[in-house]
Amino acid sequence: MRQKTILIHTLFILSLSAGLSQGADEKILMTVAGMDVEAGEFVRMFNKSLDPANRIETGEYLQQFIAFKLKVADAMEHRYDTTIAFREELSGYRQQLAQTWLIDPDIKEKTLRKAYHRYMEEINASHILVSCRADASPDDTLRAYDKAVDIRKSLLEGEPFAEVAKSRSDDRSAAVNSGNLGYFTVFQMITPFEDAAYSLQPGNISEPVRTQFGYHIIKVIDRRPSRGKIRVAHIMKSVAPGSEEQAYLKAEDEMNQLYERLGKGESFAKLASEYSDHKETAVNGGEINWFGVGEIVNDFSEAAFAIKDTGDYTRPLRLAYGFHIIKLLDRKAPGTWEEVKPLLESRLNQSELVAMGKKSFIDRLRVEYDFTVDRSVRNWFVKNTDTLIIKGKAKYPALNIPKGNIYTFADRSLSAAAFASQLENPGSNPAILNPERFIDLSIEAISSEEIMKYEDSVLEKKHPDFKYLMKEFHDGILLFEISSDKVWNKVQNDTTGLMRHYELNKYKFRAEGSSTSSPPPFSEVQAEVMLSYQDWLEEEWIKELRNKYLVIIDDKVYEEVKRRLANE
User: Distance (Å, rounded) from C-alpha 79 to C-alpha 55?
Assistant: First the structure.
């Protein structure tokens, strides 16, 4: 099955630039079916296509690029870009991609560097949780804190951590794991917990650590260098936790038989496909995609990483959910900063750490866009705000609300009347009753949201890389959809066309190992015929498009692009 050529991970990788100036980037290199194509788009896509082992010439790539743009033009003529599915998919890509630009780059870089440092180390820790809701009252919060302090005191006095976790932790899993969380690395725990764990040495017990779940007492068991990632296959006989011992004995016996068959040379993948109870992986010969610490059940992960050499497999292992035989397929080191940065960047954008850079980013935008609060209007609100308004039980006197704006920035503003309307909605109000503090926090909260919306709306204008990536996503989605209809689906479904192609070209095909001059039966060369038919459909489609749409190249701009690329 074909996969979309746009890969999600490119959402967090800046497009490579050839270093042309913005003015050079914006020069029109060509017009395809009436649509202008900027030089910067061509340059970036050319650089992304580079393969050191198979260097492509600029002229050759130009023809590939034109074919690509012709297909996109065809998709737009057939209104593929007007479907709800297309709009939703493109909007989703943009929303994710924009997060990379809507954060302070300096803070982001520092955070990523710290994350990489942590990524290179794995922590094994246990914890005891004292539950406390994030919105708990001050009294309830204090009671939870005092309980956590008392628990920590007991631990420091020598009570075994595992026993205390079983008896006093509000984390239900502690009854099974004695509070032990296994090994984890960066971005796998909520930030306050992670920060505390990475600050401790083995054997140390933390002060109470506040998170959205309550207070944690953390004990670090071990710290070790990252072991990177591995790819394995497995055969599983499942046994539900709490089953009778007879069920375990039966599963163990079945696994021992499979282990003996492996020892006699039978295929691991074949046995996994036929006998593994884990159906999701059995269809792929038991294969599990690349994973690192904390990304899969801990006891399975530890057993898998313990395998020394590629190709080796374990004896049947009794783990949490039954018995497994695990085979090591491949192993790779943690990776360099350049290799790991895109992964960390994607995880950063999914974490609460975004807030760290967002506030600083907004503060910079306030200066850039000349954000100004009208002090007289602000002071009116301070004077005329009471607790009833804050609680949503009263409204401002409409006739007395100032006529001006509470704030302005760029070409945007918020009128005093609109500000009053928002403040009269108790659901959006800061939880503070001091009028002056309430007004200032409200201004900050409302304006921050509006500034971010504005910045989001001008990303394409401010950042060429963002503009070109969005163009790439736009065209890539269209290319996939129309290619599916024009080529790939036909190969799968157009039996008549496929057989006609075979009949016309059957003497070109040869069954593997055949030495006869007679054409092979279709059944013996079906895969080859399908690939050939796909290539033919593609070629015919491009011929049609070249005759259908006009392509105009600005030779002067093209020569500039070639010179610049030649000097890279």
Answer: 36
Phi, psi of 410 (to 5 degrees): 45, -125
CA R_g for the chain: 31
The residue ranking higher by pLDDT, 334 or 104, is 334
Q: What is the pLDDT of residues 454-470, one digit of tens each?
A: 999 999 999 988 999 99
Which residue's structure tokens are 């080191």?
Answer: 333
Give the Cα-Cα-Cα angle 538, 542, 546 (nearest 5 degrees).
Answer: 175
* Domains of the chain by start residue, with CATH: 8-77+464-566 (1.10.4030), 81-120+334-353 (no CATH), 121-225 (3.10.50.40), 229-332 (3.10.50.40), 369-459 (no CATH)
User: Rounded mean pLDDT of the chain?
Assistant: 89
pTM value?
A: 0.57
Three-state SS for 122-188 is EEEEEEEEEECCCCCCHHHHHHHHHHHHHHHHHHHCCCCHHHHHHHHCCCCCHHHHCCEEEEECCCC
**H helix intervals, 424-483:** 435-457, 459-462, 464-483
Alpha helical stretches, state H, 26-137: 39-49, 58-77, 84-101, 105-119
Place 11 in a pLDDT band, splitting at 50, 70 and 90. very low
